[in-house]
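Note to self: the last two entries modelled the partners one at a time, which told us nothing about the interface. This time every component goes in together.
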Amino acid sequence: MNPLIQKQNFLSSPLRMVIGGQHKDASDGARLSVVDPSTGAEFTTLPAGGAEDADAAVKAARNCFESPAWQKMKPVTRQRLINKLADLIEEHAEELADLESIDGGKPRGIARASDVASVIDVFRYFAGWATKLTGETLDVSVPRMPDGEFFAYTSKQPVGVVVGITPWNFPISMAAWKIAPALAAGCTIVLKPAEDTSVTALRLAELALEAGFPEGAVNVVTGRGSEVGAALVAHPDVDKVSFTGSVATGQAIGRAAMDTMKRVTLELGGKSPVIVMPDADLDWAVTGAAMAIFFNQGQTCTAGSRLYVHKSIEAEFMARLTEQAKALKIGAAYEDGVFFGPMISESHAQKVSKYIEVGDAEGVTFTLRGQRLDREGFFVSPTIMSGTHQDMQVVQEEIFGPVLAASTFETEEEAIKLANGTQFGLAGSIWTKDIRAGHQMSAKIQAGIVWINCHNLFDPNLPFGGVGLSGVGRDLGKSAVEANLEQKSVLLRLE
Ligand code: ADP
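The predicted structure of the combined assembly is written out below.
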């Protein structure tokens, strides 16, 4: 039994969606089971929304968006409301961390110090953007009207109703990444969190109401992606879809969104390389490589799941990395001092375990062979595979678990070629003391973000997204606000 569950008021009554400021069950009353990954036991149920619920949520968001109160709301009021929401999240940080930890199997200390803390930063950062939106004045000639005199400018307007669809690996963070820039831009939003991890998003919707956002500004619907998610994406009155999740679902959403020309941001999978140069600070690089793959049990789209180590340091590097991986404290998310928790679900634990077998069949050398742990919950321990080749499935496919595929290189060119040898392009890291090598190599790596001497570090002001199969568009930063705005050009004839 997870001791955190008992003290959660929020879990003491049935969870309901938040639509137009009201708590709602699914229109047909259907519910989904929600399981604690640390124990494998059901701890609550969720409304399994469908098309009718999606429609109600979109209507609520539209009504709020069109309302005079919203249309006339000054940017400074939006800024204050978003800041107020950040304050409430901070006030409820312990509760939110507990909920996130129970629901997603996240070690409790990490949920508080990393996930919830970063959500507060994200809301505060985007609050500031609400009062800093600008258009431009432009010099125009209008060459077909040589005698005319003109004044031209652009203005930015909110796209309207935004749908955010989020995955289970960073539930409250991804909710914040979608909600905060949409509100800063003056949009209203319907969020559809992942069915495995919807709890903190529902709590966030309540806090948004408490902060003073009008009913319908922030709606959260729950249920299966194939049902309520697909209905939202197909809905003709939705203006933009911002999705984070798998490549296959992102492709389906992108195609469906084009039927009504919705704006889309798709942040998809990755198979991110970690390149360790011969001059790297080994203390930093070994710990960096271990954290890059094993943080959040490898269930991270930017996980450093491919390691390329310079041949001259391979033996020492792999030995030290393996030591660190073995020393990671594995345990239930509610236990003290745990770094490495369970996989999100039984089916995911099975998928990850299967990849360990695939690596075996492909002929890798196990520096460390992980396994399904013989205890309750969905635990799979860390795996490090050496001697991998580019054409192996374990090198090409996103495993989304604690499985590292390592090999060596001898030249910078070779390292770049290996790093760029998948269809993904989300992230990568380079470990070196040579500033020239760091910059030159980062320019050649196909990825939305390249870290030098660090990995998996984010800043609200730093745009994040992918190239290649890793997606379209950027979350965070000014780019995320822009993605929720339409640009309008105005041309005024003066003479
Ligand atoms: P995973 O395979 O890891 O569960 P998905 O990409 O399928 O990842 O899920 C990410 C999010 O997308 C979840 O909230 C899920 O419910 C939602 N989703 C899944 N399928 C669809 C779909 N066809 N349309 C809209 N949303 C979907």
